[in-house]
Write a structure and sequence with these properties.
19 strands; about 15% strand; alpha/beta; single chain; elongated; seven-stranded mixed sheet
Length: about 775
């Protein structure tokens, strides 16, 4: 966020400097209070400008909303100040969202310990500059995260200085009153894979509607569909035959006593404008059949409303007032439940304030009286404070199965059928969490990954790993930031991979063993990772691929590279069974550490090992990864030598995967031949010439004999008996195809005789079939 006093130069010309200082100080205080109240951080003051961050030092799941609310409070403060020196006091606020680095900058005595570097603050400053006075302007990137929660109008596309492409900006004018993601989703996709859970809820509703009060506790990780399940239940119940009372706990109000109940009452009053709020409150209690004389003073006190005449003032101690408020709330709910069926929903208990928790415990501690179903939702870390009772039911929502995930994806995509490789990656990365499935699918549909090919969506290029959608970034980072010091352990584990062992992390971590164990236990208790095995075999697995990505991406690139280097070195020195059996793991870590030469050698080892296992697809991938790295290095004799070795090793597996006449095979063999020229007796030359021979043979180019002769000549020069046998075979085949049967017979016999005399074994050759058998058939 950038905030700035509008027309400050003109203002300074109208006011005495001391008067201006008073105004600026008041402005600074208002800005700081608004930012800090919404969980932001004031980074620095720039004269009458302010730079603030939301998401640092800790992320929240709704940082974009928090920032906008803070901006609206700042502009509201300016609007209440009145003219100063004959000029209206105005503030411009600009917001932009993106990735930046926050850390120590500067030198000498002017060191900033939380300075921000990156494009994001620069764009935010430009957005602020484009805003009118007393306006909160946001970029499209910020608006995407807050859309539906606020009222806004487009300001059109703006060409901002220093920004390559014009950005659409939005002017925020107020809040919509939406309480949750479901409120702003518009058309919700059908519920998938929750038939059993829905049957349980409907059964408990039937019992409650018959007068047997029920409590259902629904738990599950973020995005698993708790709110969606409850919304579907509400939709399936007859609207006119029940009253829905919804209390939402808020991350921003965990220390605000009875916030969910107060918020519910305020929303009830706001939904019926006209009569004074106190009269609406009295009418609500009267309609329910409750006693307004006893309850209204307590509820009015909660809302800060003045009592009408005839009501005595409350003369209670704070403890008595609290207890009486609980009793009044229960009395009101029971009165409603006598009049009609009541669905009382309390969402997000993991964010509940202590007073509301005590109130909920009072409600569910004894069986709800009357026709009342109490539905409670929470994440796994919340532990109920009440013992299990016969009228209570616990539902733990599991992840969707792969087939259900695909069905959910289909609902999001609508008539657009996604390519199978896209479906497979979304299923793998979403890990059965409906919110992840929906957001990843939307991201793909809105991206440039796909194009329409005669009514069918196809991939434009090779599918790269999907990034974390912007809509999930805040939520994932907030979960990591709540780990405290254990976040570093999560980051190190994420660098190892989706699954990591205690022994590897311990070999790399700078933490003392007891602190590392504490951190790993914290990860398990948070529900972000699973623990498998014990002792030396103890391993940890990130519950979701996106959680691993969030932890990994939160590392500075320099720290990430250092971790990768330390992991690679530890694997080689302390875990040789991993390095020898899975050289691609070492290669990956050296690659990510940006140590290209070290990485290339291990990619070559990985390709060779895959070839011996006849895993041709994997061999091609490993060898190509090494070649990609080499292409980024400056030309040198060493670089060319490594490229020659990798490209030569690629010929055989590539031929098996793509076919002997594939264009990539031709390119590869000719690249090897070119690299081998000028080198003295390069071992890669004959296999490359043989590759050229087989390519032209299968492709039918008419050059088969030429490349056969080249193969035989190079083999004779090297003096390798097995390669000479293959050279005879190549000339034989080339002659035969050219119609020279006499020459074909001559080379077939020569090759056969040499083979029988030297007893050449196929395992000593660079080729994938027995030359003796082929020569015998030809002869």
């Amino acid at each position: 966020m950038f905030a700035d006093l509008a027309d400050s130069t003109a203002l300074s010309g109208k006011l005495d400097p001391e008067d201006l200082r008073v105004i600026v100080r008041g402005y600074h205080a208002a800005c700081a209070a608004a930012v800090e109240r919404h969980g932001g951080y004031v980074g620095k003051w720039l004269g009458d400008g302010m730079l603030a961050y939301f998401g640092y030092p800790g992320a929240h799941e709704d940082d974009a909303q928090r920032a906008i609310r803070a901006g609206l409070e700042i502009t509201a403060w300016a609007g209440m100040q009145g003219p100063q020196g004959g000029l209206p006091l105005g503030v411009r606020v600009g917001l932009h969202t993106g990735l930046c680095v926050v850390g120590e900058m500067g030198a000498g005595e002017r060191i900033e310990h939380a300075d921000v570097v990156g494009e994001t603050p620069n764009v935010a400053a430009r957005v602020q500059g484009a805003a009118p006075a007393n306006c909160v302007a946001v970029s499209a990137a910020t608006w995407r995260l807050a859309q539906g929660y606020f009222v806004a109008e487009s300001m059109g596309a703006h060409a901002l200085k220093g920004v390559a492409q014009p950005l659409e900006l939005f002017r925020i004018s107020g809040e919509t009153g939406a309480q949750s993601r479901l409120d702003v989703s518009g058309q919700l996709t059908p519920l998938v894979g929750r038939e059993d859970e829905m049957a349980v809820l409907l059964s408990r509703w039937d019992g409650a509607a018959a007068g047997d009060g029920q409590v259902v506790f629904v738990s599950g990780e973020p995005g698993i569909g708790k709110s969606r399940l409850l919304r579907t239940l509400h939709e399936r119940l007859p609207a006119k035959q029940h009253l829905r009372i919804e209390l939402r706990c808020s991350q921003s109000h965990q220390n605000s006593a009875l916030f969910p109940f107060i918020d519910h009452l305020q929303r009830l009053i706001a939904s019926s404008p006209g009569a004074p709020p106190i009269e609406q409150l009295a009418a609500m209690l009267t309609d329910a059949g409750a006693d307004p004389q006893a309850l209204l003073p307590l509820f009015a006190s909660l809302l800060g409303l003045a009592l009408p005449e005839g009501y005595p003032a409350l003369e209670l101690s704070p403890e008595q007032r609290r207890q009486k408020t609980y009793e009044a709330t229960v009395a009101w709910l029971e009165a409603e439940a006598r009049r009609q069926s009541v669905l009382l929903v309390v969402e997000d208990l993991h964010w509940i304030d202590p007073s509301t928790l005590e109130l909920v415990s009072t409600i569910v501690g004894g069986q709800p009286k009357g026709r009342m179903l109490v539905l409670l939702t929470a994440r796994p870390e919340f532990e109920p404070a009440w013992p299990q009772q016969p009228y209570m039911t616990a539902l733990r929502l599991a992840r969707l199965a792969p087939g259900e995930a695909e069905e959910c994806m289909l609902h999001v995509a609508g008539t657009d059928a996604l390519p199978p490789e896209v479906v497979a990656q979304i299923v793998a990365r979403a890990d059965g969490v409906p919110l992840f499935i929906e957001e990843l699918t939307k991201m793909v549909l809105e991206s440039s990954l796909l194009r329409d090919d005669r009514g069918r969506l196809v991939l434009d290029n090779r599918m790269a790993p999907l990034a974390i959608p912007e809509t999930l970034q805040d939520s994932l980072m907030a979960r990591l930031d709540r780990l405290g010091e254990a976040k570093e352990v999560a980051q190190l584990g994420a660098t190892v991979g989706r699954e990591f062992s205690h022994s590897v992390v311990a070999a790399v971590s700078a933490l003392r063993p007891e602190l590392l164990s504490t951190g790993l236990n914290a990860l398990v208790e948070s529900g972000l990772v699973y623990r498998r095995g014990f002792g030396a075999t103890e391993r940890y697995v990130f519950k979701h691929a996106l959680i691993q990505d969030a932890a990994y991406n939160s590392l500075l690139r320099s720290t990430r590279g250092r971790f990768h280097r330390l992991i690679a070195e530890a694997l080689i020195a302390q875990f040789p069974e991993v390095a020898e059996g899975q050289p691609e793991v070492v290669a990956h870590h050296y690659t990510e550490a940006r140590l290209a030469m070290e990485a290339v050698g291990w990619w070559k080892l990985a390709g060779s090992l895959a070839r011996t296992r006849r895993a041709n697809v994997e061999a091609v991938a490993h060898l190509n990864r090494g070649l990609e790295l080499l292409a980024s290095l400056p030309a040198s004799a060493d670089r060319d030598g490594l490229e020659l070795a990798l490209a030569a090793a690629l010929i055989a597996p590539l031929s098996n995967v793509d076919g002997y006449s594939a264009p990539l095979v031709e390119q590869t063999v000719h690249r090897v031949i070119a690299l081998a020229e000028g080198r003295e007796d390069p071992p890669e030359l004959v296999p490359a010439l043989w590759g050229a021979f087989t390519y032209h043979l299968v492709a039918g180019t008419g050059q088969t004999l030429y490349w056969g002769e080249q193969t035989l000549a190079a083999a004779l020069k090297r003096g390798n008996t097995g390669q000479v046998c293959m050279g005879h075979y190549a000339v034989c085949v080339g002659s035969w195809h050219g119609g020279d049967l006499e020459r074909a017979e001559k080379h077939a016999k020569a090759g056969r005789e040499l083979f029988d005399k030297e007893r050449v074994r196929a395992s000593t050759l660079e080729f994938s079939f027995d030359p003796g058998e082929n020569l015998n058939l030809l002869a």
